[in-house]
Amino acid sequence: MNTIARAERRQNIATPGFRDLFASLVLLLIIGIFISLTVWRGVAFINVGYQIRGMEKKQTDLLNLNRELKIERAMLSSPERIESIARGRFGMTEPAPDQIRTVR
User: Fold this and answer.
1) For 90, phi and psi rounded to 5 degrees?
2) Where do the domains of the chain lie?
């Protein structure tokens, strides 16, 4: 009986049991999840950085376009330009004094 007990003890010591294998797998799974989350967070951080840069560039482009459009609006609405178009394209002239009516 004593030899059988010794043989069983040697077998239990020599080969890892199901519990040890399961614990090792769970530990590896937890480590893998931790590493995956860390990498995912880093990638997400980099993507947000790229999005911020793109939005800053778009904002700069829109501000430049807005400035250019304000300058163009000022040029197109100048009284000299409007008078030049009125005289040249439409043949308009200054009204004679008898053509002016006062409205009360």
Assistant:
1) -105, -5
2) 2-84
Distance CA 68, CA 76 (A): 12
How many other CB atoms are found less than 10 A from the CB of residue 95?
Answer: 9
The number of CA neighbours under 13 Å toward the Cβ of 10 is 6
Helices (H), 1-104: 2-14, 18-76, 79-88
Residues 20-55 have pLDDT tens digits of 889 999 999 999 999 999 999 999 999 999 999 999
Residue 47 CA to residue 45 CA, distance in Å, equals 5
